[in-house]
Design brief:
The chain is mainly β. The protein has four helices and 22 strands. The protein folds into three domains: 110 residues, Elongation Factor Tu (Ef-tu), domain 3 (Beta Barrel), CATH 2.40.30; 76 residues; 108 residues, no CATH class.
């Protein structure tokens, strides 16, 4: 509820193995981009006015010290929703000065990108292997790079057993893409875990009511990319979460027409549903612990349903993390 969305709370940890440094008490700016797409999620974080020795330790500049390679960012409210919004690998540090008195340390990070770039699948499956065993073989290739495929036993995959043996070789991400396509699904890496979502379904869990009373800022708009919504930062809303939006509050964007010789393109806007249920495809978190920014920017698409009764919706498919 909106009355729980004040008194901001943030926790920022940089880690090296089992050792970590808590930077939560400093001024922090961040932009986190998460999406239902195989490209790794990213985070840009700026921390102000750290001691020079602290910066050197984090970057691994001090003798006998290694670089801190992992960052965990949690955000929310002291009396309301609070949770992890990013957990990934640090790709680059950058230091600088904004003014004569203010210095900063920038952290650029990605979620599961090492596994995405380097995981190699080298395995042979016997005749009779099930789709679930194929998924397990792909998951094994990601494991060595810190990317997991949890709850694989709880997933139901369509398809038949292999009629003959199969050699699986190549980048694991390519195999994962092909497998997801056979399951009429998308796949992505969310906080180090591979998530597979049916294209006509959603992430199981609580449906989030999205209106002015629950933190929605401004008016939703049906664009050519999806239903665009902005709200107060809410870590509960992640990729795959279902939002319930009053359709009468959704504006329609202007249709853009472009005319060139022999070429005509019209960008059509996203559709709304009769019941107002939408799945989050992109979730961008923006925050500043010493300024006004503290928002979630969401892009959603309508969910196909066979029935809707009260707060309960019945999708065609089901979702889970492999």
């Amino acid at each position: 509820m909106a009355n729980d969305q004040y008194l901001r709370k943030v926790q920022l940890i940089v880690a090296r193995g089992t050792e970590g440094i808590d930077l939560s008490e400093f001024r922090i700016q961040f932009v986190v981009q998460a999406q239902d797409y195989e490209t790794p999620n990213t985070a840009y974080i700026r921390v102000y006015n750290l001691a020079t020795t602290t910066v050197q330790k984090i970057k691994g500049d001090l003798p006998f010290d290694g670089e801190y390679t992992r960052v965990i960012l949690s955000a929310g409210y002291q009396t309301g929703n609070f949770g992890v919004i990013f957990d990934g690998t640090i790709k680059q540090y950058r230091t600088g000065r904004e003014s004569p008195t203010d210095t900063y340390l920038d952290i650029f990070a990605a979620d599961g990108d090492i596994g995405f770039q380097q995981a190699l699948l080298k395995q042979t499956l016997r005749a009779g292997a099930t789709p679930q065993q194929i998924a397990g073989a792909i998951g094994d290739a990601f494991k060595d790079y810190g990317v997991t495929m949890s709850d694989i036993q709880g997933m139901t995959f369509s398809g038949v057993r292999l009629s003959r043996g199969k050699v699986m070789f190549g980048l694991a991400r390519d195999a994962m893409r092909r497998f997801a396509q056979t399951q009429f699904s998308s796949w992505s890496i969310q906080q180090g875990n591979i998530v597979v979502t049916r294209l006509n379904s959603y992430k199981p869990g609580e449906i989030v009511e999205m209106n002015m009373s629950t933190g929605m800022v401004g008016v939703p708009e049906a664009t050519d990319s999806g239903i665009a919504v902005r709200c107060l930062l809410n870590p509960k809303i992640q990729v795959g979460t279902v939002l319930h939006i009053d359709n009468t509050s959704i504006n329609q964007t202007q249709i853009v027409e472009q005319f060139f010789p022999g070429y005509n393109e019209v960008n059509f806007v996203a559709e709304t549903t009769d019941y107002g249920y939408y799945r989050v495809l992109v979730s961008e978190y923006e925050g500043d612990t010493r300024d006004t920014a503290w928002y979630s920017r969401l892009t959603c698409l309508a969910i196909d349903m066979t029935a809707a009764k009260g707060d309960e919706i019945l999708p065609f498919g089901s979702q889970g993390a492999l």
